[in-house]
Amino acid sequence: MDYKSLIANGRSVRDFKDMPVETAKLLEVEKFILKCKKLVADIAVESRFIEGEEAYKRLYGVAGYNGVAVKAPTYLVLLSENKDHYIENAGYVGERAVLKTRDLGLNSCWVTFNDQDAVKKALGIESDKEVVALIAMGYAANGGVKVETSVKTGDNYSKADIKVEGTGSSRIALEEMVFIDEWNNNATVEVLEERALLDAFSYARLAPSALNKQPWRFIVDGGKVVLAIDSENYSGSYINKIDAGIVMLYFGVILDVTMFDSKWGFDNLDKDYKISSNYKVVGYCNI
């Protein structure tokens, strides 16, 4: 897959055509999820597809913003073992599946929920695994919310006016997102280019997040890239963990296709990066 193109042309769709998704495409997505690279390799993940308007009716009041589910021809339900970092892994795998659906000409959007047991009951799912992601899938009726950017390799990434169409929200500049060695020591495009990290950070900048809050910041520390997430209660926040997994994917997948196989770690980092009190270091990638 052309990950750069798929990321740059990303859009979240909440209005779908009343048109079923071909079985062959669903099987291809299912096979992809089974074999794709995970954030944590030993966490067992499985996918199920719930098709038809019945899924929307069952999920009404259980999933979606204020309990209003998305009316889509198909729902992808991601199930996972409950292990350390399994929610971050769900964000990583779920968004990888989103990119795969986009590659197949489909559209999608993440659907929020608060009670995974209620989702399982509503959809009649019997499994010892937890529901960790709901993704509505189908063909877009009216385009969707799109990341607006003309940025290509070699352009001025930091000055490009990257916006999320329909929200009025702009992307943070690279200099605000990436620090060198410690907090508030802002990176420059030139330094990131010298370290061959400009592409990876530029595409990570395009990662979707809940309400487009862009809660991530990075610290380049020698041979490590450290990820910090803006959260006063990260340990209990499903959404922030999903966002962390997604941005780890976007950064890592560009390294995978441009430099080397990326690997995120979660071991405790004893070093004091002098990070802001409302941020938490959640992982690192060796470079």
Main traits of this protein?
287 residues; five-stranded mixed β-sheet; 9 helices; 13 strands; four-stranded antiparallel β-sheet; NADH Oxidase; TM1586_NiRdase
Description of the structure:
- With 287 residues, the protein is an alpha+beta fold.
- It folds into two domains: 3-138, NADH Oxidase (3-Layer(aba) Sandwich), CATH 3.40.109; 171-286, NADH Oxidase (3-Layer(aba) Sandwich), CATH 3.40.109.
- Helices cover 31% and strands 22% of the residues.
- It contains nine helices and 13 strands.
- It has helices spanning 3-8, 23-35, 53-59, 86-103, 116-123, 174-177, 189-194, 198-204, 238-258; strands at 11-12, 45-51, 74-80, 107-110, 130-138, 145-148, 163-164, 169-170, 178-180, 216-221, 224-230, 264-265, 279-286.
- Strands 9-10-11-13-12 form a five-stranded mixed β-sheet. A four-stranded antiparallel β-sheet has the order 1-6-7-8, with no helix packed on it.
- The two termini are 23 Å apart.
